[in-house]
Amino acid sequence: MINANDLRRGVVFQLDSVPCAVIDVSFQSPTARGGNTLVKTKYRNLITGQVLNNSFKSSDKLDEADFVRRKGQFLYAAGDAGVFMDLENYEQYELSGDIYDDVKGYLLEGGDVTLGVFNDLVVTLEVPQVVELIVTETAPAIKNATATAQTKEAILETGISIQVPGYLESGEKVKVDTRECRFVSRA
Question: What is the pTM of this model?
């Protein structure tokens, strides 16, 4: 059992036999004597992906979810799905839909991932916060065109496009922030 007071970002609890991951949490103190502190949460249903809000009393107890995060590896793309391997027990999972579509632009064969497993079913897929990818196509480098920072569109080896500084050329390796799909630096 988890106390509602112990809820923090990233904690996974079970509500109505469904795993839910806390996205945001805030505490509201009572204004009257004898009032309970309210724990306001914003959480994601890990089965449907739906984002919900709920308030709990600080004394409420929530069920722990049978949820574990495991190291995994992206093996290859198979049509509209991706095949992943759990590095602890070497099981392979074929994932498709939103769980795969949201991250496929950051995956290279052999890339590390984190698999979120609930009752032997992968419900979350996390990629590292920063990945290194090669620029395959971009406009020629702009030299001394202006004193202000200029960006241009670049297509990376996985097919996603991002805005990069004007001095980058095709063939260069860049670091990309996977949370915001933006250029970080040269690799």
Answer: 0.75
